[in-house]
Every structure is written in structure tokens, then in C-alpha cells.
Amino acid sequence: MGAVHLLEHPLIQHKLTYMRNKNTGTKEFRALVQEVAMLMAYEITRDLPLQETTVETPVAWAKTRVIAGKTLALVPVLRAGLGMVDGILNLIPKAKVGHVGLYRDPATLQPVEYYCKLPQNLEERDVIVVDPMLATGGSASAAISAVRQRGATAVKLMCLVAAPEGVQRVQRDHPEVDIYVAAIDAGLNDHGYIVPGLGDAGDRLFGTR
User: Fold this and answer.
1) Which end of the chain has the smaller Cβ count within 10 Å, N or C?
2) pLDDT exceeding 70 applies to what percent of the chain?
3) In whole angstroms, what is the distance from residue 146 CA to residue 70 CA?
């Protein structure tokens, strides 16, 4: 079973508080999402393998280490996942970026894929699927399925706020996937919103309703 990592670093929790505040405007909210995503990326990449190398400093040659092995691919779930990408790229600028677009079928309420464009050679990459909210878990599970069907074998999920229902859905559908979240809230309301949550992340990122 994939692990659930609750990232309780003080800076993450501090910034998340301002993101939850309904009076936080679009510009500040967008900046906070990017900042928290960057801080979370620091934690989610903690287990990247290293290999030894040598560099010449202004003083002498030094034995040091660089990241080895697989390269990274970020896959935001459209549209809200886009708000997290720049923050992660600030930390990992060479990561490739793919996109998965999903909408909810009004009759079945199930996620339907309408767009998927991913980097090549997914089987050789560590893939991080990013979406701010893990509510019912349907979209996140579908996005993970999309990247796995196209060859990804090493997949992690990064979300800002999760509901227990969403965590359980992803663990049921993809037991091998580790989940990284900044908060696990009480649950979902009758409209499928996380409570207390932070509202609709996409609307708050892009100033829509």
C-alpha cells in the first residue's frame, strides 16, 4: 500500500492558512499555491538517488554528488493543477511537463478524459501528478490511470488539501502510489467540496466563478 505523507513543515502550514482565508485575493492565492508547491516538491523529491561526480572549484577539485537515475515529469490535472507547476519548476527547472484534462460526466458523475499530452519515455521517469484538491478522488485516480496506461511505472500524487474519501479512493484504485498532502480535512459536504477546505482552487487561482 502506498504511503500517505502529511507535510507539516511550519512554512507549508503557515501559507496554507492564508490560502484557506476567503479574503485572500487571486494574486496572493496564486503566489501562495506556487510557494507551497515548491516547498512540497522539496519533500517529495527527498528520496531521489544520487551519484558521485567531481567538479573543479576555484580552489581545488572536489568530490560531490548529483541526482542520478530517472528524470522527472510533472503532470498537472487541468485546470487547477496548472497553478502548482511553476512553483515546482522553480525548484526542478529541467522537469518535463505533461497535461491531463478531465471533466465530470453530468449523467454518471464519472471523470472523462478529454485531453492528454505527456512527455516521451514515461517508463524512464518519476512522474508526479499534481492537483490542488483531492476531494472524491475520482479525477486524481483517472489521471493516475491515464499516465500508467501510457507507460508510467513510478507515480506519486501531490495535493494541497485532501478529504479522507479521496485518499481512500486513490489507495483503493492505485495502492502502489504514494500521496503527498499539506492537510487532510474532515470530509466532504453535500456538493462534494472539502470541508473546511479552501473553496474551488481553480476559481480562486484564475479569478472565475
Assistant:
1) C
2) 99
3) 20
182 class by beta-carbon count within 10 Å (0-12 exposed, 13-18 middle, 19+ buried): buried
pLDDT interval class at 144 (50, 70, 90): very high
- Band (pLDDT 50/70/90 cuts) for residue 48 is confident
Helix (H) or strand (E) holding 67: strand 61-67
Contact 54, 39 (CB under 8 A): no
Q: Is the pLDDT of residue 69 over 80?
A: no
User: Partners of 71 in the beta sheet?
Assistant: 125
Give me the pLDDT at residue 195, please: 96
Which cell numbers in the block locate residue 160?
494541497
DSSP tally for the chain: helices H, then strands E = 6, 13
* Chain centroid, CA 62 distance in Å: 35
pLDDT in tens, 98-107: 999 998 777 7
Q: Is the pLDDT of residue 17 over 90?
A: yes
DSSP string of 123-157, one letter each residue: GGEEEEEE-SEESSSHHHHHHHHHHHHTT--EEEE
| Amino acid present at 132 | P
For residue 109, give the H/E element and its range: none
| Rounded CA separation 81/40 (Å) | 14
Provide the b/e sequence for 124-157 (b: ≥16 CB within 10 Å). Answer: ebbbbbbbbbbbbbbbbbbbbbbbbebebebbbb
Half-sphere exposure of 10 (CA within 13 A, CB side): 0
Q: How many CA atoms lie within 13 A of 116 on its CB side?
A: 16
